[in-house]
Amino acid sequence: MQIERTHSWRKVGVQCLLLAMPTIFFAIVILYKLNEAYIILQNQWLYQGIFFLLGIFISLIFYGWRFRFTSTIITLGICYFIGYQIIEKYAIGEFDMFFFIVQYLIFLLVFSIGWLVGFGFSRWRFFTVIWILFLLAIEIILISKIQTISAEAIIITFAPVLLYAFYILYASELVRNLNEHQSSFSWFLAKRVSGFFLFAIAIFAIIFLMFRKDLMNIEHDWNKVQPDYQANKSNSQSMTKSNHDGTLSPNGQMPLSGSLSKTKQLVFVARLNNFFADGKTQNPLYFTADYYTRFDTVTQTFETDSLMPFNDLFKPDPSKVPLFFTKTDSLAIKNSQAIVDRSVVEAEIYKVALSPSDFLAPNTAFSVQPIPVPREYGSQYSSAYRAKMWVSSLNSAYFVYNPAGNTTLEDFQKMRFDLLRKDTSYLNIDTGFLQYYTSMPRGKSYQKIVALANQITLNDSIVIDKMLAIRNYFLSKDEFGQPLFKYTDNPGVPGLPSANKLDYFLFENRKGYCAYFAGATLFLLRSLGIPSRIATGFLTVDRSSKNPGWYWFYEDQAHAWVQVFFPGYGWIDFDTTVPDMNTQQAPQPDGTPPLGTQKVYFVGDGIIKKIDSTDKKLTLYVGKILYRDKSYTLKSVIPLQMNIAFARIATDTGVVNIGMLKKGAHISAASYNDRLNNIDIKRSKDTAAYILSQLKEPVSIDEVKIIDQSNVTQQNIGSRHSFLQSFNWQQIAVGCLVAIAFLLLLILLSPWLIWQYYQFRAKKNTHWSYRATLYYLNQLGYSRKMQSPESFAMLVDKKFSTNFSQLNRIYQKEKYSKNKPSAQEQQWSKDFFRLFIQSLRKQIPWKQRTSKFFNLYYTLNFFIKYV
């Protein structure tokens, strides 16, 4: 029995073109966003898009016949089950089987959605409404993942889905009510679809222009309340906090909460010049932000203390330091009390989401130097700085948990432990220092911690061995061979609100994240009289094999660990957080590092006296300069003219335009011009003034950093525009109108342009003479329609007294006969075309010719019927 068709092949083709293709494109965009948000999808959005494409196309073609939905779904389910059985039978190993099954289930889900969408488009009239609601729900979920709410993000996210929603509603009804047998079928569809898009784009543009201020207000209001919203999430804590400008900063305190929230957002990228003795193996170090030395027993929160003794935390504001100038604090080195096996290590930090005012570096930092981001990476990184640290050769991110089987690291570990075992006494350490860093809260809960510490280290007398005993305790197993302590982002809280959370962690729950492990370790060590403190910042993950020394830091790498003081060696990192065995680390690809920083020859720092935006020149009251890597301070400011025509102007949030330079602003201006290196520096009372006097003005500038605009006069202070506000909408509107006008003119002239093409080709052979003649007749309103070529030629000859029938016979002979036209016939064809056009022009008035010739319908009709 022959199965009847529901839709003709022509209608199925229209469904695939007008419904399936836009849906596939939009689905791929959605899949891309979902893969960024959810690790389990394994970043395979392209393959998943192909699965969806297969599902929707096969379904549309399949349901073009009168197949029932229930029977086909049952058949499809049987095929799915057979596929599952094949994978289960031939997969080797548990891991491979699990991987293949997960991938297969993802395929089934995506393919099935595509299949259902194809069925809905083919058979179910109200399916488009359900489909649109489904997509809107997904978009809302994806918007919830956005870290920085802005007008741009709202528009970019919602505009495409709304446009697609309106289009699919319109197109589905258009296809459903389509008359396949009407004349000018293709022209009808093209006219309807293009008309819809022109109308929709115009409506969207009008709505955006009308409500633009409201969108900006949403952005402004959200940025004001977002930090409070993040801070007040139900019993959830983050190691970072969101600022009003959308950037991230270290939290500044560490409460013990029931859950930890974190994202995969890239925060910064760093190059760390720290390797083992072989010069090849990387020795990563944790990047420190704060030290927590106080504990609030009421709120159970670890806090910073600006009055902590021997404060070795170097915490400058890089955004306030002039470009290429260095800020140094040697007191940090002195307060570290570290004199054994220390050396200076350099690091370069490139900020992505990190706040401009924040400074992160390994322990113990003492110097910062802002540097420009290479131009080709300006869109990826907002600002950068170079840091110097007084680093212990015994310190490493591998201090506790080494990668198994790495001989270099295992030998290094053993060497460190042997060295630290030689130092067993705190007799010569400042008494106040010891009392502060070994202080413990009082109470029953903390007495239990003291007893546990003594029990764990019962057989150990040396500090490092006690540390290792605590490490081994957290790594120990219970009577069932399972880990005694487990890592989790959601440890929960004790049943009683006032209960001690560290007590609950150590003796009951034994589940927690880094704050719990660091806090418990701190009090275990202090109860043994070992000076210690909590450090917070970012743990360093070594996954950049292609670019040794480069590390990428994501928000989920924000971390807390303990530092232990060893006389002579100073503070050493000690991380006891157990590995997370249940959560797979996100496959975050590390990009290309920002290489290519140029050598600077001159930097001037001062206040803008005058700015000429037209000529792109400014006059700077210079207060200090940097020349040949040496800083000079002037006794009095000197005006210096600068050419900034080719300069990149930036703040610590990214590149800005010249309009941001205002009179009274504090800036630093750098030049890479090696000709400035030729000045013979003379010893004088004011070397800086002499250097400035030798510069040829205006000095060519390559980099300008805006440091402070607080001195800018009020009339020059503009509101801080967002990305969308920086556009000149009037110029964009004019540009769009000009482009549309040009496109319309091109479309209107297309019949004439096509005629010029055919007329040029008609001089070559009979084929093109015949095609050009047909096109000319078509444009004048004489098309062949349902007639044969011979009948049409005879009709033309009868009306215009021409010999078109002869040209038709020569053309048919050339196209179908084995005997090709003679040279005389080919020459006649060329002559005929010229005489034929002249004859028609004499018989048809020019007004009639012009009005018909530029009829776009005739042109489209010609290509539908003759091409």
TrEMBL record:
**Disordered: annotated segments:** 232-254
Q: Where is the Transglutaminase-like domain?
A: 506-578
Sorted alphabetically, which Gene3D superfamilies does this protein's record hold?
A: 3.10.620.30
Sorted alphabetically, which keywords does the UniProt record give? Membrane, Transmembrane, Transmembrane helix
Q: Which Pfam families match?
A: Transglut_core
Check the record and name the SUPFAM superfamilies matching this protein: Cysteine proteinases
Which residues are listed as membrane-spanning?
A: 12-33, 45-65, 72-92, 98-117, 124-143, 149-172, 193-211, 732-755
What superkingdom heads the lineage? Bacteria
The answer to keyword Transmembrane helix applying to this record is: yes
Classification via PANTHER family: PROTEIN-GLUTAMINE GAMMA-GLUTAMYLTRANSFERASE (PTHR42736)
UniProt protein name: Transglutaminase-like domain-containing protein
According to the entry, what is the taxonomic lineage of the organism?
Bacteria, Pseudomonadati, Bacteroidota, Chitinophagia, Chitinophagales
